[in-house]
């Protein structure tokens, strides 16, 4: 293996702009991948997509307090900068932005992005200020870096829609890429929060993926009633994970997230479930197959 060089690490916006000035003057295209660190293959798949498409890749690592609700896991969220930098060096990332809270939110910070209807159901109902925090930090990072292209994961489906809406509404000059969810070999969607699960709960958490697969099979078999599919998904979940506490289980329009009652075209199945004390989310886009 050729030796890998560590990315340049900056912690302030001034350092960031100094580093990016010559990149931009050199006519290079810049990619941004916003993350909260504790990087896994899901994050790295976004980095690899960026490396293929752009000349210079920036990864931000920042655990954004404003997107965590009271009683959520802000304090225990894993912070693993050293190993993250090693993983990013292997991928050939040029620059990492890892600002402190003081750099991001000055004491007089008072401006927030208010998200519209697409942020209201599902996650928005269960985590009231979550998307306001997400949209604000993403807009700040886009303004700090000024990337040509920014990369997000389908794993956080509603988040991707909220960001798409914000970028369109506020004329943010960036292209967005939404990359497929990366899963463990047994189907569990990769997430930094999976590490909170005990081995037994980790096993039960496969119920999320299984219920999404069941929904896919039912739709492929011609089931058109959303309620019947949701009932079967819930049954599957609670059979495989008897302690599961369901925040939501939904079949929705893939663009607006409005609930779908009758399956007539593509839908997205989304769910958020607490297993043990860990809240997991997952989703899948489901297509009808044409019956003759
Ligand atoms: P996070 O660090 O959880 O804020 O995630 C940073 C970015 O990585 C977001 O755009 C996520 O949607 C994306 N991401 C997280 N997990 C996965 C995964 N398993 N597959 C693909 N993308 C992911």
Question: How would you concisely characterize the structure shown here?
Answer:
This protein is an alpha/beta fold. The protein contains ten helices and nine strands. Helix 6 (130-145) packs across helix 7 (157-169) and helix 9 (206-220) runs antiparallel to helix 10.
Question: Could you outline the blueprint of secondary structure elements for this entry?
Answer:
Blueprint: E1 8-10, H1 13-25, E2 30-35, H2 41-53, E3 56-61, H3 81-91, E4 95-97, H4 101-104, H5 123-126, H6 130-145, E5 149-153, H7 157-169, E6 175-179, H8 199-204, H9 206-220, H10 226-240, E7 245-252, E8 267-275, E9 278-286
Parallel strand pairs: 1-4, 2-3, 2-5, 3-4, 5-6
Antiparallel strand pairs: 7-8, 8-9
Adenosine monophosphate binds at residues 35-36, 42-43, 45-46, 152-153, 155-156, 179, 181-182, 189-192.
Strands ordered across the widest β-sheet:
1-4-3-2-5-6
Number of helices: 10
**H-E string:** EHEHEHEHHHEHEHHHEEE
CATH fold node name of the largest domain:
Rossmann fold
